[in-house]
Write a structure and sequence with these properties.
alpha/beta; 540 residues; elongated; 37% helix; three-stranded antiparallel beta sheet; eight-stranded parallel β-barrel; 18 strands
């Protein structure tokens, strides 16, 4: 007999609370794109922002932006001393094209006195009247009880009275917020149990956790175990200060870990869960930032193994070093090649790239020796999969020579322009031979590396059209030893229109030379990939 599982509801506040993140400022177009991604993924609720607070959010709510998810408008409860019909903030919420309205309400008596400047009773009346107005307007109503946990610790009776006022007025969800992010999981559990004992059913309670002690996910899970059935969070844990509970970590935990999957179900299907890595990376791409390699479940290192003894066991039995199958979350296993890796690492990585080589082949031993020698010089193939594949193919079977660079030159000039403004201009000249014909290209760029990249890709003859969709997504420089004569390592991340991503590396005493090596590898890898001669991993 199958046990009936409780339904958990997922509430995404990326577009509202996530917008508080320093350095993030969504445009209307950004919000439309993100809402579409969340809707397609299967979130139960998508909170879009605060209509009436700023022009972007007001425009965003001129129409409903989701088809599957409930579209939520956020705003404050009505002001004390003003009727619901005369409160402009409440009017903006009711006019917004949303399915639900989420009110933020003070639940700590200290904040009621200091921030609102009204009596405790007036605050309770504002909560009740606001919820009633939303329900009367045909919207699903919910209330975020701001500072609930701190408020409970200071005055439990009043904090519970605020939550009860929302529930009794007809709120579908009463959300308990750890606004300062300092509450511990054991405290969360006890306080949630108190709220349920005070008469608010768990299937009407939610949790909103901040990550100021690094425990937003743990606090959310503790709240679920105590009885709440709605979880609020954001994509990749963005949010003000240290961020919000990371839904990208929470959702796989709820769906894959027996402690939760045996008791609960979500609105996310197994197929949708397999798209969570893509969702996480697409969101980072929209924010124009590199994905965090060590993110649980979805990071590029989440299922990566470096030590030879681990790799050997992993190849025989994946469960030895994997807590869930990487495919379940749309990620992949990586057995990295490095100076710590044994033969098993190399064989596994070569096989994933469609390169079969016997383990007793002398060429394999030569490849391992070269990789270890180069890593001693500063190369890092564990983070540069494309450069490793090119090196392996070159040593094991040879690489086609698409083009040859005979020379390049970079110039950096600092001068005053016609308007008297001081400018630094970078110019690069690259000479390339394609089909025995030498071509010279010149380009100006934002810095010498950008100029080199533009010049190198300006005219590759018959290959030019093949690299039109090649883009550099990230550029990292690492100084490997001190001083102005230091060895420099450059890592470049590239992608193309297929969505494939790859990483290349260059090392030199000269930062421009190191960058040029990585640029060359990126272009050659792209040309190989176009011919299905490489790139099986990048296409995964």
């Amino acid at each position: 007999m199958t046990m009936q599982r409780d339904r958990l509801y997922l509430f995404d506040t990326t577009l509202r609370d996530g917008q508080q993140t320093p350095g993030i400022d969504f445009s209307v177009e950004d919000k439309i794109a993100i809402a579409g991604m969340l809707d397609e993924f299967g979130m139960d609720y998508v909170e879009g922002g605060y209509p009436g607070a700023n022009p972007t959010d007001t425009e965003f709510f001129t129409r409903k932006r989701t088809t599957h998810s409930k579209f939520v408008a956020f705003g404050m409860t009505k002001r004390a001393g003003v009727s619901t019909s005369n409160d402009p903030g409440l009017a903006a919420l009711v006019q917004a094209r949303s399915d639900a309205i989420c009110f933020v309400a003070k639940s700590w008596d200290y904040h009621v006195r200091v921030a609102l400047g009204c009596s405790n009773e007036e605050n309770l009346e504002a909560i009740s009247a606001s919820v009633a107005a939303a329900v009367a307007a045909g919207r699903e109503a919910m209330v975020d009880c701001e500072h609930f946990f701190d408020g409970f610790k200071a005055n439990p009776d009043y904090a519970l009275a605020c939550a009860r006022a929302a529930y009794e007025a007809g709120a579908r969800w009463v959300v308990l917020c750890d606004t300062n992010g300092g509450t511990q999981p054991a405290e969360i559990r006890v306080i949630v149990e108190n709220a349920i004992a005070a008469g608010i059913p768990g299937d009407h309670l939610g949790i909103h956790a901040h990550d100021d002690t690094g425990q937003a996910v743990a606090n959310s899970l503790a709240a679920v175990e105590a009885g709440v059935r709605q979880i609020q969070g954001t994509l990749n844990g963005i949010g003000e200060r240290c961020g919000n509970a990371n839904l990208v970590t929470l959702i796989p935990t709820l769906m894959l870990k027996p402690a939760y999957k045996d008791r609960f179900e979500t609105g996310i299907s197994t197929e949708q869960l397999a798209g969570i890595s893509r969702l996480s990376r697409a969101f980072d791409e929209l924010l124009n930032r590199a994905p965090e390699a060590q993110s649980p479940y979805v990071g590029s290192s989440a299922f990566a193994t470096k030590a030879g003894i681990h790799a050997s066991a992993l190849i025989k039995e994946p469960q030895t070093y994997e807590h869930v199958p990487p495919e379940a979350v749309g990620n992949r296993r990586r057995v990295m090649v490095s100076d710590q890796g044994g033969k098993a690492n190399f064989l596994a990585e070569l096989k994933r790239r469609g390169i079969d080589v016997p383990k007793d082949d002398a060429r394999l031993d030569a490849l391992i020796a070269v990789v270890k020698e180069r890593e001693a010089e500063g190369y890092a193939y564990e983070g540069a999969d494309a450069s490793f594949e090119l090196l392996a193919r070159k040593m094991l079977s040879g690489l086609p020579e698409f083009f040859a660079v005979t020379s390049f030159r970079c110039m950096v000039e600092r001068r005053f322009d016609a308007n008297g403004q001081l400018r630094t201009v970078s110019e690069a000249i690259v000479k390339v031979v394609v089909d025995n014909e030498e071509k010279m290209s010149v380009a100006e760029g934002h810095g010498p590396v950008n100029a080199l990249d533009l010049a190198l890709r300006k005219d590759l003859g018959k290959y030019q059209n093949e690299i039109v969709d090649l883009e550099l997504a990230d550029f990292k420089v690492r100084i490997l030893n001190g001083g102005t004569e230091a060895i420099t390592r450059v890592l470049i991340e590239s992608h193309d229109s297929t969505g494939a991503r790859w990483w290349t590396v260059g090392v030199s005493e000269n930062i421009i030379d190191a960058s040029f090596q990585a640029l060359m590898d990126s272009i050659i890898y792209k040309l190989m990939k176009n011919r299905e001669m490489a790139g099986l991993v990048a296409a995964e």
